[in-house]
Amino acid sequence: MSIEQTPQAFETLNPIDEARRQIEICNACRYCEGYCAVFPAITKQKTFGDGDISQLANLCHNCRGCYYACQYTEPHEFALNLPGVLAQVRQDSWQDHAWPRGAGQAFHRSGVAIACAVIVGFMVLLLAVQAIGSAGGDGFYATLSHNAMVAIFVPAFLFPVLSITISLRRYWAHIGGQKVTLGALTHAFGDAAKLKNLSGGHGEGCNFEDEDRFTHLRRIGHQLTMWGFLLCFAATSTATVMHYVFDLPAPYDLLSLPKLLGITGGVLLTLGTAKLAWLKPKGDRSLGDTRVWGGEMAFILLLFVVAVTGLVLYAATGTAAVPLLLALHLGTVLAFFLLMPFSKMVHGFYRLAALVRDAQQK
C-alpha cells in the first residue's frame, strides 16, 4: 500500500495493517530512534509480520512523546498516530490470546458495570458465609473462618494463573519467542522494575497529560502501583509461609513482616492508583484505544478500592464494622483476581514478555 494515500483511506485499514503502515514510515524517518524500546526494535527490520506488530505494540508504554515530536501527524497527509494505533493492536493482542476468549472484550466494553456487579455478588456471598459459617477464630477469622477463606480464595487465585499462562503461551508463539535465557530475563526485569521506557529518550519523563510539559508523574504513579501490589502480594505470601510452615497463624502484630509489608504496600498502591486515576482524564483519549477507556479506568479504580478497603479494614479491627468491611474488602480482592486476565492488569505480563523478546532480539 502506498503511503501517499489520503487519511480517509487509512480509516478502512484494520489496526494491524494501519500500524504496519505507520511503522514503515517511522522506519524511514527514524527521528524518534532514542525515545523508547519501540524505535530501536523497528530499525532492526525492513518488513513486519503480524507477530512483529504485536511485539512492538506491547513494547510501547504509551508515553506519547513520539506523537508530539512527529512532523507527520495530522494535518499532514501521512496522518500518523503511532501511540493510538499501537494501543489498539496491544488491546487486540490481549483479547485475541485471552482464555477463555471473549471475556476480555466484554470487560473492556462494560468494565465498570462488570466490576461493580462482581464485587456486590461476592459481598453477598461472603456475608452469607459469615451468617451460616462457624468461625470461632481470632482477628478476622472470628468473622470468617480460615478454612472458608482458603476454600474461596485458592480457586480464585489458581484461575487467573491458569488463564494468564495460557494467554502468554499463545502470545509467545505469535511473536516468535525463543527459549528464555537468564540474561534475557535479567534485562527484561531490570527495565520493568525501573520503568525505563517511561523516562523518555531524554530522561525528562513523558508528556502524557500535556504536550509541552515533560514530567515523571506517570512513571511515579506506575512505580507506586507496581511496588505497592508486589508488597501486598509479598505480605500474603509471607503470612502463608508463617501459617503452614512455621505454624504461626494470624492475627499478626503490627511489627510482624506480613503487617509491615501489607500496610506499606497498601499505602503505595493507594497513592499510585489515585495518581493514575487523576492523570488518565488529562491525557488525549485519541492517543490511546478509545474503545476501552472505561475498562481501563475501571481497573485502576478497582485496584484503588482494594487498597483502601484493606487499610480501612485494618484500622477498624475490633469494631462492629469489621464484618461488613471484611466482606467489602474480600469482595473487591476476589473481583480483582477473577477479572485480572481480562483487565488492564494483564498488560504487565504481556509487556514483560515483550521486554524478554526484545532482549533476545538484541
UniProtKB/TrEMBL annotation:
Keywords: Membrane, Transmembrane, Transmembrane helix. The chain crosses the membrane at residues 111-132, 144-168, 224-246, 258-278, 298-316, 322-342. Gene3D superfamilies: Transmembrane di-heme cytochromes, Chain C. InterPro entries: Citrate_utilization_prot_B (IPR012830), NarG-like_sf (IPR036197). This is Tricarballylate utilization 4Fe-4S protein TcuB. It comes from Aliisedimentitalea scapharcae.
